[in-house]
Input
Amino acid sequence: MKKHTVLAGLVTLALAGGLSSCAFFKTEDIIDPNNLSVDAFTNNPSRGQVQLLSNGILATARAGYGDLVASAGAIGRETIYSASTDNRYFTELLGTKADGFGGATDPNGIFNAYYSNFSQTRRRAEQFAKATETASALSAAEKSAAKGFARTIQAYAMLQLLNMQGKNGIRSGYTDLNSPGDQLKPLKFTDYAGGLDLVIATLNEGSTALDAGGTAFPFTFTSGWAGFTTPAAMKQVNRAIAARAFMYKQDWASMNTAVGQSFLSLTGDLNAGPKFNFSNDQNDTPNGLFQLPDGNGAPYVLFDEVVTSAEAGDTRIANKTRKRTATRSSGGIPSNYEIKLYSGVTAPIAIIRNEELILMSAEAKAQTNDLAGATAAINVVRTGAGLKAYSGASTKDALIAEVLKQRRYSLLFEGHRWFDARRYNLLGTLPFNTSPYKVFDAMVRPNAETQWELANPL
Output
């Protein structure tokens, strides 16, 4: 696929450069399944095209994850991508260059890949939802199932994008896909609260569509989705993501309801949940977050305080981190520990896990004064990590503090700590938060978006 794509690109460039004859170039039309043109599928796609399109949505969602955890991990003072060839990962992200960029990171810099990938996921999901409506090969139930899937993954990407952008918000939508010459042009930005409302509305639309989606999707999933490949099971994923959104909205009652409708299980596998798959196949990609011990090229190292602040005997430290044989310095910050979360380059990455749901349940219960229920959920996670049952104060504030502590270790290197600190106004408690460092409250809006706004005022 890559060879054909490059060849087609060279042909295009050659013709654009003024070559008058194409006799030297004899190529077949090659369809890249992850980058189909709009015209290729908006009008009555086949089942095969529907399958390719669903693959493409998940591929771009997967691509955005690694960039998110690299940036959010550093800003949340959890991990540092200690790249020996590019110190921006531990200068800009730690805030030491903020004065040169108006108090933020470089809007033209290297930290916008997550923005591109999650925005592309959102657009592809929108295209997919519109396209499957016209698919004569699909039954009414299958069309509804496809729409429910699209809205669920679309909302997942929107929420990831929104949390990274924070106060900057996200696009409120796109122009009508079916308007010739006016397909998917971006609309105005929301603020953070408006973005959450949009995410929740998208999830609710997906949930309703999944209810009418029958018993099967008109496409298949990778093995990482085992147990979640029916519309009913996808609705549980939908409600899990909705619980996240309600958590950020601080709508505790709705959060409690949503998490109860998810795949939450207080007695189940803490790692249960849908996952992104990786492989060494030539047309796929390996898990770029896996690393060998004591790497010197670009290891993900930890802020030592993550390890030294843990309770004695917490098995999550042994399972997710390891001590380096030599201290690694990144922008003046010494690290004696590194991440070992993934077992190899084909190890899957969780999209959302039961352990997170249990802790969301605990938080929702604490916030609604079900203190006994919150304590019970906390203890599922504590005992699962080899710790004794919670013995602190049985007050709402104490239990919320305990939930945040458990989230720190249960969700280590999954991109949550920065967001947790921000939503509880705890950014000032993170280490390395004074000059020459700075803890950002949001990623900067990419300059390409700013320039679009200037050229296309709405």
Observations:
- Residues 47-75 form the longest helix (29 residues).
- Residues 1-30 form one domain.
